[in-house]
Design brief:
4 helices, mainly alpha, 0% strand, 74% helix, 100 residues, 2 domains
Length: 100
């Protein structure tokens, strides 16, 4: 993305491209579904590198653990607030009466 001088992170663009691919090629859904079932079955293996990283840099958690904890709490609260705001915003754009 450096060539296009965009500020959008690569993983976000990847998710957008992936969504577009799923919309354009519905047959891709079955392949993705099979792969996601396999990955879910072996999900524990994805946490091994994170665990090794925590053990390798354990001294940093002792020094900066409080800062990381506060940052994690604040970023989570901001994410929840922004998500709730967008949910309400889009809900007001398309109001539907509840069916009873």
């Amino acid at each position: 993305m450096a060539l296009l001088n965009l500020f959008i992170p690569g993983p976000v663009l990847g998710m957008v491209y992936f969504f577009i691919a799923l919309v354009l090629w519905p047959a891709l859904k079955e392949k993705v579904e099979a792969l996601s079932r396999f990955m879910n079955a072996h999900l524990a293996l994805f946490f091994v590198p994170a665990g090794v990283g925590i053990i390798d840099y354990f001294d940093l958690f002792g020094r900066y653990g409080w800062a990381m904890g506060i940052t994690l709490i604040i970023s989570t609260l901001i994410t929840l607030a922004v998500t709730a705001w967008f949910f309400n915003f889009f809900l007001k754009m398309n109001p539907e009466e509840p069916k009873s």
